[in-house]
Amino acid sequence: MADESSRRLTAAGRTMRPFEQSLPMALLRAREAVMRGFRRVLREHGLNEQEWRIIRALKEVDRIDIGELAERVFILKPSATRTVKNLQRRNLVNRDKSASDQRRAYISLTPEARELFDRLAPKNEAEYSRITEAIGGGDMKRLYELLRLVTERLNGNGRGC
Amino acid sequence: MADESSRRLTAAGRTMRPFEQSLPMALLRAREAVMRGFRRVLREHGLNEQEWRIIRALKEVDRIDIGELAERVFILKPSATRTVKNLQRRNLVNRDKSASDQRRAYISLTPEARELFDRLAPKNEAEYSRITEAIGGGDMKRLYELLRLVTERLNGNGRGC
DNA sequence: TGCGGCTGTTTAACATGTTAATTATCAACC
DNA sequence: GGTTGATAATTAACATGTTAAACAGCCGCA
């Protein structure tokens, strides 16, 4: 509200933030800047971003049905199905049908994937440290807090819309 | 470094941040939370996210070659080519070859697109206000600053890597 | 037990992102 | 002025995201 000078007049006479000042764009650009280094590391190990997210999530749980996996790694179920299929082809995950509910497909990591994880994790953490150093620990922490705030408030956790 | 308790042991005995504490994931989730409302507004006007980014960027410049347009809206050139083609089919943009350099394709908004913009912009700004209220003006400003910081530092603006 | 609705997953169809190769034009140099 | 290398844009091929429909198994209930 204060910086009226950074706004532009539309043909209809109303104002609108300039394109540069768009929260989705700012989030997208920041994410791409952060991902660049991670992607380089992942590519050296033949993984893409989604595959690594899945492996990382599976590392924390032993086994999990594909629906909950998709939710945790923030990938839609059809994409998760496809990616898991690729990982299975490369012997990085097992898929077993639940005995109690034949609809459920339980996914788990193979020993090969665990070895891959152990080789990749240190490099990933090193890249994370590089990023933390570049940004500064305090700002990094503040950024995490703000992102969590935004996500929770807008997803209606609690009252609100 | 302080919260060792939030880390997990890998099979190799090293530690790694839990999946939830991943900056790319946090950025992705926040962006999706923010975009949800905007997408609803855009869909009502038959536009997707990329089309709106392009229209919004064109609104600020009169005309621009497709390469620079792609750079500004953070869409790769092949995608920009495709999206511009769709917009052209719907009479929302003009494309003219530069007289001085026949390789260049200049893109500009049609009057129809300007009308569409003027109808959409207020709703878009209303949604932006809703988000700002939910987050709080101070935190919103801090978030912008941190995102800019991250982007600049990691993209090597200045010294650094 | 068999029908209807519900749920977890997959398939299908299409949109968008991404990389590499291709085309067309320009610009410099001999 | 013709060749070579660089540049703007497109095309092609494939990966991933997204939505809707299909499929299969579960469950409750008459």
Can you characterise this structure?
The structure is a homodimer of 161-residue chains. With 161 residues, chain A is mainly alpha-helical. Chain A contains 6 helices and 5 strands; from the N terminus they run ββααβααββαα. Chain A has helices at 23-44, 49-59, 66-73, 77-89, 111-135, 137-154; strands at 8-9, 15-16, 63-65, 93-97, 105-109. In chain A, β1 and β2 form a beta hairpin. In chain A, α1 (23-44) packs across α5 (111-135), α2 crosses α3 and α3 crosses α4 (77-89). The longest helix of chain A has 25 residues, at 111-135. Chain A is globular, with a radius of gyration of 21 Å. The model of chain A is unreliable at 1-6 and 8-14 (pLDDT under 50). Chain A binds a DNA duplex (30 and 30 nucleotides) through α4.
Average pLDDT figure of chain A: 88
Rough shape of chain A? globular
Q: Write down how many β-strands of chain A occur, each being a DSSP E stretch of 2 or more residues.
A: 5
Q: Give the biggest beta sheet of chain A.
A: 3 strands, antiparallel
Elements of chain A, N to C (H/E):
EEHHEHHEEHH
Largest contact between chains: A-B, 67 and 67 residues
- This entry's quaternary arrangement is homodimer
Distance between the termini of chain A: 23 Å
- SSE-based structural type of chain A: mainly alpha
Radius of gyration of chain A: 21 Å
**What percent of residues of chain A adopt helix (DSSP H or I)?**
55-70%
Tally of DSSP helical segments of chain A: 6
